[in-house]
Amino acid sequence: MTSTSTLLDPAFDDVTRSEAALRRFLHGLPGVDQVGAEARAAGLGTRSIKTTAKAYALDLAIRMVDLTTLEGQDTPGKVRALSAKAMRPDPADPTTPQVAAVCVYPDMVATAREVLGTSGVHVAAVATAFPSGRAALDIKLADTRDAVEAGADEIDMVLDRGAFLAGRYLHAFEEIVAVKQACARADGESAHLKVILETGELQTYDNVRRAGWLAMMAGADFIKTSTGKVQPAATLPVTLVMLEAVRDFREQTGTMVGVKPAGGIRTAKDAIKYLVMVNEVAGPDWLDPAWFRFGASTLLNDLLMQRTKMKTGRYSGPDYFTLD
After folding, report:
1. Is it the case that residue 236 has pLDDT exceeding 80?
2. Integer Cα distance of 292 and 249 in angstroms
3. Per-residue DSSP letter, 117
4. 246-253, Cβ contacts within 8 angstroms, sequence gap of 24 or more
């Protein structure tokens, strides 16, 4: 997965030179038609996907999962088991694809890295005082560097929503830039940066669009809906607004940025709705784990159950697959 998230358009140099300039730019973005966005999301959610298309969608969704455990009770044993499941989601069926990544707290990165090795499954770590983001910048940067040094391929940071909602856009922008720099590794490569907008706290779709653009201009490789700790988390209309943002950003800059809905996506039916939306709103280029992910803990089991049903004609019991 090659990062292209850099400021390619020199016009953004002027946009980010001052608080006033950045405010003018963000508030000059087209407003979101709330009724229209919600109606379109609902309409796309009614599309019917069957037979071979459904089988393809189920495998693609599995490949897009960031298998996640972010609990205070996480243990090394749990992370090892989750990592093993990420590599072989269904041990009885070796044709089942691997997931995209295992997402853990920074102190569990080394454990996940040890199990995953060179399997191709990435290690993602939440950082920057997840989930609140309420910490000094030096603490957030240390959090990020520790995770990268321990072997994280991806960093999921949280937007400073307090600064953003107070209109301190430049502060939020500069913090993302600093975290992006902290993602650099000693070998000259860089961990990919996902910026969590926490859309449930942003109050309006216009704010979601502005936060997405701010994150992308600052160097985000992905924009992500939620921490999973705040409700509402991922929703179809919010994800639609974010997909429009990445589409428009690429049209303006030539830079492609990924999208990750996270929190509350539990069923294969829901996942397929998101895939339809990706194809229709952003385009087929985003139908790839390099550009679209699901942050989830329980979604994988339902995808596996539906996959088994399509192959065997019968449902497995809910306890057929390991509970995460």
Report:
1. yes
2. 16
3. T
4. 246/212, 246/216, 246/282, 246/286, 247/281, 247/282, 247/283, 249/213, 249/216, 252/9, 253/7, 253/8, 253/9
Which residues are identified as catalytic? 156, 224, 260
Q: What is the pTM of this model?
A: 0.93
Question: Does residue 320 surpass a pLDDT of 70?
Answer: no
- Round to whole Å and give the CA distance between 20 and 215: 17
More confident residue, 259 or 315: 259
296 backbone dihedrals φ, ψ, rounded to 5°: -160, 155
Neighbours of 243 (CB within 10 A): 24
Q: Return the structure tokens found at 288.
A: 């790839």
The whole-angstrom separation of Cα 59 and Cα 37 is: 28
- The DSSP annotation for 142-209 comes to HHHHHHHHTT-SEEEEE--HHHHHTT-HHHHHHHHHHHHHHTB-TTS-B-EEEEE--GGGT-SHHHHH
Q: pLDDT exceeding 90 applies to what percent of the chain?
A: 88
User: How high is the mean pLDDT of the chain?
Assistant: 93
Q: How far apart are CA 121 and CA 289, in angstroms?
A: 11
* Predicted confidence (pLDDT) at residue 7 exceeds the cutoff of 90: no
Residue 283 burial (CB count, 10 A): 14
- pLDDT one-digit tens code per residue, 121-175: 999 999 999 999 999 999 999 999 999 999 999 999 999 999 999 999 999 999 9
Counting beta carbons within 10 angstroms of the beta carbon of residue 5, is it exposed (0 to 12), middle (13 to 18) or buried (19 or more)? buried
With b meaning 16 or more CB within 10 Å and e meaning fewer, what string describes 200-218?
Answer: bbbeebbbbbbbbbbbbbb
111: its two tokens: 């454990």
Q: Helix, strand, coil shares of the chain as percentages rounded to 5?
A: 50, 10, 40
Q: Contact at 8 Å (CB) between 90 and 304?
A: yes
Rounded Cα gap, residues 290 and 9, in angstroms: 22
Do the beta carbons of residue 181 and residue 150 sit within 8 Å? no
